[in-house]
From TrEMBL:
GO terms for biological process: rRNA base methylation. This is Ribosomal RNA small subunit methyltransferase E. InterPro entries: Alpha/beta_knot_MTases, PUA-like_sf, RsmE, RsmE_MTase_dom, RsmE_PUA-like, tRNA_m1G_MTases_N. GO terms for cellular component: cytoplasm. It comes from Streptomyces ficellus. Keywords: Cytoplasm, Methyltransferase, rRNA processing, S-adenosyl-L-methionine, Transferase. Residues 18-65 form the Ribosomal RNA small subunit methyltransferase E PUA-like domain. It is found in: Cytoplasm. Residues 75-235 form the Ribosomal RNA small subunit methyltransferase E methyltransferase domain. Belongs to the RNA methyltransferase RsmE family. It catalyses: uridine(1498) in 16S rRNA + S-adenosyl-L-methionine = N(3)-methyluridine(1498) in 16S rRNA + S-adenosyl-L-homocysteine + H(+).
Amino acid sequence: MTAPVFLVDRVTGGTVTLDGPEGRHAVSVRRLRVGEDIVLTDGAGNGAYGTVAAVEGKDRLTVTVTEVRDEPAPSPRITVVQALPKGDRGELAVETMTETGVDAIVPWAASRCITQWKGDRGLKALAKWRATAREAGKQSRRLRFPDVADAATTKQVARLLAAADFAAVLHEEGAEPLATAELPSTGDIVLVVGPEGGVSPDESAAFAEAGAKPYRLGRTVLRTSTAGTAATALLLGRTGRWS
């Protein structure tokens, strides 16, 4: 089994102490012991690989680092603009997209979203998305965790699409399948996943003006909480990032 990953503020060589919540999880939940392999990462592409040298109490261990790696930023970069789903489906979308390999997630308050992030509720929901991405990043043994942006308006999403090297809106009535779209080998790919009620005509027009075309995934219609994951997997395979 591959070594478990834990988050640290800074990756260094030599001897490192892991404490606080991450140390508690390593000792009391994962029950790591002396001699076991471990990976420490800052979530920004830097990783320290080593072994547990000592366990102190229930929330502290010492790691002897044997190798430090710097994982370059992947290319092309894949960003999914995710319309806000109902209930905990948002965390599900973030979790599975992170495990699959997405590079950035932008929550989008689409006009047809039943869920709306406002005030403290919105801040708590965003914090949950970010915590989910962090935990999924560790679980999937990533050194570089996806960025989860602040919630975006339609105008902000349009600007993001306009700046992309490839911009797409998943739509069941798209004339071209995403599987045959011409993709860039570098730069930024931005993909919009609409809400269960679909992208409104005004939003579609704004995105089209920004240069985004509608594409379909396949013959079936996926829910908003799973479409981004399926599309990310397709793009990772087609761009060679999974090869």
